[in-house]
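Dear all,

This email documents one entry for the complex benchmark we are building for the journal club exercise. For each entry we list the sequence lines for every component of the assembly. Then comes the predicted three-dimensional structure of the complex as a token string, followed by one or two observations. Please use this as the template for your own entries, and keep the labels exactly as they appear.
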Amino acid sequence: MRKAWIAVLIAALVGAGASSSSSARAQDMDFSLDETEGGATTEEGTTDTATTEESGSGDVIGDLATSGGDTTATTSTRDEPVQREEAREEIYAVQQVYALRINRVEITPSVSFSLNDPFVSHTGVGLGLNYWWTNVLALGLNFIWYEGLESESDLGFQVRRGTRLSVPISQYQFGAHLNFTYVPIYGKFSMFNEFIFQYDAYIVGGVGLMRTRPVPVIDPEIRSFNFDIRIAFNLGIGLRVFVTRWLAIYAELRNYMYLEQLENLNVSLGNQRLDTATWTQSSLAFTNNVTAHLGLTIFLPADFEYHLPR
Amino acid sequence: MRKMNIWAALIAVAMTALAASTVQAQEVQITGPLAGAPAVRHMRLYRVNRFNVMPSIGYTLQDEFARSLFVGLEANYHFLDWLGVGIWGGYNVAQIDTDLTTQIAGNAQITDRNRLSVPSAGNFSRQIGRIQWGLSAHLIFVPLRGKLSLFQSVFVDTDLYVIAGVAMFGLDERASTVTDGMRSGACDLAEPNGSPSPGCLATQTARAGRITPSPMLGVGLSVYANSWFGVAFEWRAFPFSWNPGGTDESGSARGPFPDGQVDGADSRTTFNHMFNLGFIFNLPPDQALTE
């Protein structure tokens, strides 16, 4: 696939160079649709590298392109290992976006950790699904499973033991959220001036639900709670680093905000102690569950077509 | 179990990334005008052979009893564009109690069992440990240099760096009841009216300072406005052992918890970390370019 693209682009350059030897100069560029479309499909995608030698015009970009035409002479003088695949790199005034997102589906498996709850670590495993209808906007779903992965820290126990105070805590079962994603920032990193990584930063937000329940710490001998649904809003930021055009690593910081039902701090006396209506607080508590996600992004289809020339 | 899950996920991410990049590097042989060329030409070198001075404001995260607002100053010198050395110093200018501390101060229940841990609920905020200052010497490793586009209209140079080194922190904690004339035994019995004895209350507010060593790890993102000024967003972690609540947490050979003393045995290691916002001033103001 990559070879085919390179062949098309070389042919396009040759065609453009033959018609106008000064076409590489920025001030002479014509960005009309006729020229760009014609250039992209010239010579039916044939790969005639010999013709690139005719494009020397004295300008820097043209000369660079010409000197690269005689690849056999260059490679034969080098003492190099056997090469398995060859890729001809050309220089373009504006490079294409490394990985197009438009009309692709993104699958995002991840692990998540809560950051702002010192009493319970809400660890989860998640799976997200996004559809990108433009290169910067996506609509998606994400699902996080918590039950069995959470753990209570020593702090809650120590506070209970040292101060005779119990802090009401919650347990999560799962969360499911509808999200919009917007990519306002993108860029690239060079590692030791040798490797280049593309990345983008995004904002994500939406609405969903969380299934939670209070953990009985005030009167655990009597009280027990079932999971219940809470409406949750979420807002976050993330960073995605592309490893290939279909695979990326991402890290995300997201705040899941919802109204939590907490255990009642007061214990009723007598038969009222058994009344489930007295087990929970009368008012709901606004809760911020700040979560870090770390995971992979897999874009499908893995391959894609550029619809505009370079 | 939770740690195993986390490590398994991290290893899977790392192996996938490594495998994908390795395959590309082995099989593609670049020819043409870019053969042998560096990944970036005329790259601006913000760090090599330059000092940078960075005043900063930092805020500790996930504290149990008290947060710290650090005003800091960092000085670094880079002998390579990707490697440098530096020192950082910060002073805690605002000690902010968490909601947990406020709740304990208002609601803690004092019994015979915890009278030494919390002699008086109202004075609880005066017994908790606080970070006073910090100093670190560190290496700076800059593996990633790049640029970013904001709304396709603003383009800035960036780099991602990792710091690793050693640090010292000045701590202010509840004084040991074993030394300094403090008598933990004063808390054994309540006064006739049920309140703690003056001797017990004195142990709660007595303070002792000490310096503790710590490893220092961090990661940061620099965003450069021009050749001599930029902004850094930085996260630092510095785990060390202390007694943040000032409570009696340990047992002893004499019996189970509590051991009836507030001392070094009550310390535990906490994962302390902070977010720093820094303002970078590079000296000399002019930077070099690659070929």
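Observations: The longest helix of chain A spans residues 2-19. Chain A touches chain B through 60 residues (CB under 8 Å).
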